[in-house]
Every structure is written in structure tokens, then in C-alpha cells.
Amino acid sequence: MALTTRRRALTTLGAALAGSLALPATSALAGERAHRPRPLWRAHAHNDYAHPRPLLDALDHRFGSVEADIHLVDGQLLVAHDPVDLDPARTLESLYLDPLAARVRAQGGSVYRGHHRPLQLLIDIKTEGASTYLELDRHLRRYRHLFTTYAHGRVHPGPVTAVISGDRAARAPMAAQTTRRAFYDGRLTDLGTAAPASFIPLISDNWTLNFTWQGVGAFPDAERRKLRDIVRTAHARGQRVRFWATPDLPGPARDAVWTELLAAGADHLNTDDLAGLEAFLDARGTA
Questions:
Q1: What is the predicted pLDDT for the residue at 286?
Q2: Taking 60 as the threshold, does the pLDDT of residue 75 lie above it?
Q3: Which residues contact 218 (CB under 8 A, 6 or more apart)?
Q4: Could you tell me where the DSSP H helices lie in 36-117?
Q5: Which residue, of 2, 40, 143, 240, has the fewest CB within 10 Å?
Q6: Cβ–Cβ contacts within 10 Å for residue 199, how many?
Q7: Which whole-number Å values give the CA distances from 244 to 26, 209, 247, 266, in the listed order?
Q8: Straight-line distance from the first to the last Cα atom of the chain, in angstroms, rounded to the nearest whole number
Q9: Is the domain defined by 40-283 classed in CATH 3.40.50.970?
Q10: SS3 content of the chain, % helix, strand, coil (to 5)
Q11: What span, in angstroms and rounded, lies between the C-alpha atoms of 109 and 116?
Q12: At 43, which helix (H) or strand (E)?
């Protein structure tokens, strides 16, 4: 009887010790996951290269999309908005492609550790579209495992999805490819056309050319319906929606437009104010 009692006591003690050893590790892992910053997938860093630390500042603010303007100059893809600002040291590779590749290696295969949704890299072509895209395509192919790829009718997600905007002449060489590491940024004129989301995953357009409201006073009912119809039509085809040229000065007008865009289901909010949009989205729990 005493032996049986001792065995039961040892069994109970062993279970208690095992539990005490396992719980801290489990709690630590859960704590790490709980405190891991959640990416703001709807945050788009417009003119990202204008920040003190291109790409890196946007990632520090957890942005899910960044934009780089490129110029083809003597076989190099230089990043700048205007030709006067071109600098041979500021290439697409040095500012974006190489840092993204290094980060993905360090973060276990994704831009944000534990989050496998791709970061969007919107590349705005400022020089002639067809020739610039063909050179860009050669650059992207050097980063074999970094980019989402379209191959023979199927999309294979990667850590980064490149979307090509800017000069519209890029469309023809892209459409002719059976394999590519980039996708096309459509316009509202592409909404509801035969072009599939596997080619045009994003519909972007100028807010001021489509809406009169700039965040002051009430949003006209007709314009609100128009915005929601645009988003609904795009989403039905698996496409995302972004508007540029929305108000971007801190204040009630900007917040009002961003609030309406969120309510309509727009996928990306455009800004040059990284901290401002981060705070706006965090306050609304939209990560």
C-alpha cells in the first residue's frame, strides 16, 4: 500500500515538474507572437524614396506597400521623381531590391516575420515604358525567390509583389510574357474589362479627377455611391483599389477622406506621412 502511494506521488510530482517547465516556453512563444508588430497592409508609402531611409522607414512604420519611381539611364534603373534628382548611387537595387532580399532572408522567408502576405512594391516607370520594363524585367529575374511570379496561367506568391505603374507603354511587353515577375497597375478604364486580376491585380487612379470632395463638409451621396461601386466591382474580380492625389496635409479633411476610403473597402491609403497614417490606422484597429 505504501509503495502504491509513493508511486502515485512521484507520478503527480513528475507531471507538475513537466508542466512547470513547459509553460514558460509556451508563454514566451505566445508573448513573442502577441508583441510581434502587425503589418498595416492598407498603408501605401507614396514617393517612398523621398524619405531619409527609403523602404526602411516605411517598414519601420509597418507599411504594406511602397512606391519607387524609376528612370532608365545607360542600363541602370535610377530612383527619383524628376530627372534633375537622378543620382547614380540611388539605384532600384541599392534602395529596394537588395535590402528586400536581405530582409526576407533574415526574417525567415517573408518581409514581416510570421506574416506571409506579400509586400507590394509599386514601381512607377518615368521613362519610355516598353524599354524600361524590359530592363526592369531583367533586373527582377536576378532575384529568383523574392517576387510573386506569373507562369503559364498561374500566380505563385512570393515575399514581394512587384506592380508596374507609370508609362503605359509597359503594358504590351508585359502582356506578351508567359512568365513574368511583375503585374500591371490598371486604371478605372480597366475596371470590368477582360483583363484578369492575374495581370491587373490593382486599380489605381487620381482622386481629384474622379471626385470633387476633398474632405470638407459632407461627402456627396452620389460620390459615395460611386466610390463604393468602384471598390465593389474591383473586388468582385479579385482586384484591389488605390487612389492617389487624396488630401495629405494633417487635419480633419485628410482624416475624413481616409475614413470614407476605409468604409468603402479601398485597399490602399496613399500618403507621404508615414507616422500619420500609421497612427490613423492603429487608432481604428485596421492592421
A1: 78
A2: yes
A3: none
A4: 56-60, 92, 98-106
A5: 2
A6: 18
A7: 44, 10, 9, 12
A8: 61
A9: no
A10: 45, 25, 35
A11: 8
A12: strand 40-45
Of 126, 116, 130, the closest CA to residue 68 belongs to: 126
| Strand, helix or coil for residue 66 | strand
Does the pLDDT of residue 7 top 80, yes or no? Answer: no
Specify the amino acid at residue 195.
A
Tell whether the model's pLDDT for residue 42 goes beyond 90.
Answer: yes
Residue 80 grid cell: 527619383
In 10 A of CB 217, how many CB atoms? 9
Cα torsion 54, 60, 64, 70 to 10°: value is 0
Tell me how long the chain is: 287
DSSP letter at 44?
A: E
Which amino acid appears at position 54 of this protein? P
What region, left, alpha or beta, does residue 67 occupy, with left being phi > 0 and alpha being psi -120 to 50 degrees? beta
- For residue 124 the three cell numbers come to 512607377
Closest CA to 100 of 138, 68, 52, 77: 68
Q: Provide φ and ψ at 172, rounded to 5°.
A: -60, -50
Neighbours of 134 (CB within 10 A): 14
Q: Would strands 160-166 and 183-186 be described as parallel, antiparallel, or unpaired?
A: parallel
* 177, 170 Cβ separation under 8 angstroms: no
Residues 220, 226: Cα–Cα separation, whole Å: 10
